[in-house]
Every structure is written in C-alpha cells, then in structure tokens.
Design brief:
It is a single chain. With 208 residues, this protein is α/β, with parallel strands linked by helices. The chain has a domain of 136 residues: Rossmann fold. It is 44% helix and 19% strand. The protein is built from eight helices and nine strands. α1 crosses α7 and α5 runs antiparallel to α6. The structure holds guanosine-5'-monophosphate. The site of guanosine-5'-monophosphate has 14 residues, from β5, β6 and α4. Guanosine-5'-monophosphate (5GP) binds next to β5, β6 and α4.
C-alpha cells in the first residue's frame, strides 16, 4: 500500500544534557524505517570525534546570526553560551517527503516549536534520579568540573518542564528506553488521524 501522500510526523525529544538522548535517538532512527534525526546548526566548536554534517552543521556565530536574521530557523536557542538551531527548510523537506523527523532540542527550542502551532509529538527523557545524571556526566568526562556543575544546575531547572510534554520516558536501561521510544513512534503512526488516508484507500477497495 503506497504511503506517498502522508505528511511526516514531527517528534521533539528533550532531556537534561547527560540523560543520553542523542545515543537513544540515534539507535531509534537506526531501527525505525522512514524516521530521520534532524541535524542542528550550532556555533559551538566541534568536539574531538564530531563530524560536520553528521553530529551538527558547525558554523561560525556570524553565519548562525545571519541565518537567524534570514528567518531560516524553525527554532533556535542559546544553550550554555552557544547557539543551536533547527533549519526550517531541512525539516520541511523531510516532512513533505512523508518521512517522520525527530528534533533533539532543549526545552526552550521545544517551547518555540509549540508556539508555532505545528502538530508535534513531544517526549521528555528523564534520568532515573539526580545522582545518576551526575554520575553519567562525570563518567563521560567530556567536560571539566565547572562545565559539569553548570550542566547539573541547568538540569535542576529543566526537569520541571516534563509537564509540557506528551510523553515521559525514564532512561534507566538503554535498550528498554529505545524500545519505549519505538513504541511511541508506532503508536503515533497508528493514530486514526494519521492513518485516515491509508484507511480510506483500503476501504475504497471494499466498495462494490
Ligand atoms: P551539546 O553541546 O552537548 O551537543 O548540546 C547542548 C544542548 O543543546 C543539548 O541540550 C541539546 O539538546 C541542545 N540542542 C542541540 N541542538 C539543538 C537545536 O537545534 N535547538 C535547540 N533549541 N537546542 C539544541
């Protein structure tokens, strides 16, 4: 059964940094067909091992600000002093082609997407508790102590925003969490409102 005319679904995933959301969403898109992860633009310098166009589109602050002035972002935010944003045309291209897309963005970005009145499904990922988040942040040792403390302080504020999201998933076990995310994507795809075109086509074959 063709799926050509269906417009893709927009998923937004947020979590305090260190909750492992990027790894989770990378695994998710590997497993679910026709689901893509959005690649954000950032003015943050690439960390060791990060690749341009894969982890982020790395651009200068000036280039980023020019994109803001040209209204190219669906949403953008200043996170820890660096600018991050989702390019509207990139997202639109995926949705118009009928694929679903996941934006992995912070709570400010998610609020902007919501304010635009777009149809979206939002998921908030929580670590099992504060101590686990701290352990994970220290364990990955990407940041120095000051940066870790700043992330933890931000996390204290961010977690209360779970109330603005449609779904909440606790990231205790990686595999189980990916399975929960898969479940959310499949459930949303099966909603009657998202299935109505295909259902109408099927029902049409029953006409005498
Ligand atoms: P990091 O520098 O560790 O890769 O990301 C820092 C934070 O920026 C994370 O909370 C991440 O979700 C957020 N972020 C990444 N891309 C975007 C984006 O396009 N928009 C917004 N609003 N936040 C983003």
């Amino acid at each position: 059964m063709s799926n050509e005319t269906r417009r893709g679904l927009l998923f937004v995933v947020s979590a305090p940094s260190g909750a492992g959301k990027t790894t989770l969403v990378e695994r998710l898109v590997e497993r679910v067909p026709r689901l893509q992860m959005s690649h954000s633009y950032t003015s943050r310098p690439a960390r060791a091992g990060e690749r341009d166009g894969v982890d982020y589109h790395f651009v200068s602050r000036e280039a980023f600000e020019a994109m803001v002035a040209d209204n190219e972002f669906l949403e953008w935010a200043d996170v820890f002093g660096n600018l991050y944003g989702t390019a509207a045309p990139d997202t639109e291209r995926v949705l118009a082609a009928g694929d679903d897309i996941v934006l992995v963005i912070d709570v400010q970005g998610a609020a902007q997407v919501r304010r635009r009145g777009l149809a979206l499904v939002s998921v908030f990922i929580l670590p099992p508790d504060f101590a686990t988040l701290e352990r994970r942040l220290r364990g990955r040792s990407k940041d120095d102590d000051a940066a870790i403390r700043r992330r933890l302080q931000t996390a204290r504020e961010e977690v209360s925003h779970f109330r603005e999201y449609d779904y909440v998933v606790v990231n205790d076990d990686l595999e189980e969490t990916v399975r929960s995310l898969e479940g959310i994507v499949h459930a949303e795809r099966a909603r009657r409102t998202n299935m109505s075109e295909m259902a109408e086509r099927i029902v049409a074959t029953f006409r005498e």
